[in-house]
Amino acid sequence: MHLVGPGGPTPGQTALEQWEGTRVPLATVAVNTGITAAIELDVTEEDTALHLGTGDVRVLSTPRIVELCEQATVRALEGGVEDGRTSVGFRVEVTHLAPIAVGSHVVAVATLERTEGKRLVFNVSVSDRCGLVAAGKVTRVLVDRAAFLDKAR
Q1: What's this model's pTM, rounded to 2 decimal places?
Q2: Around Cβ 64, how many Cβ atoms within 10 Å?
């Protein structure tokens, strides 16, 4: 796979940014670290590994945990991203620590730890009444919405 288009990246761009066509000037990143949001879920049959086809047990699935974490990051950014911009998922690193039964209540929390240029790195966790269920990091990237959609294949 070639990441660089004809002529290579333009000055100040990485090959990946040139390929994606989504460079956001650093001056537009005005998101404060420490912002936090939570998403709650009462686990149903539709949230299980068995239902999603990612396992054969009726417990909260890892893909659903990742989705909850990403939803919490999006909620944390609500109202904080400039018009014409959006954030997209870039990297997810989550460790699923405990099985959770149907009927249980969980809470996913995302807190913006740091910004790295246009990258937003969140600490995420999912807990239930007994303690930690999953933990990790989710990185989102600020992009120009129109340019990003133009590159969709």
Answers
A1: 0.81
A2: 24
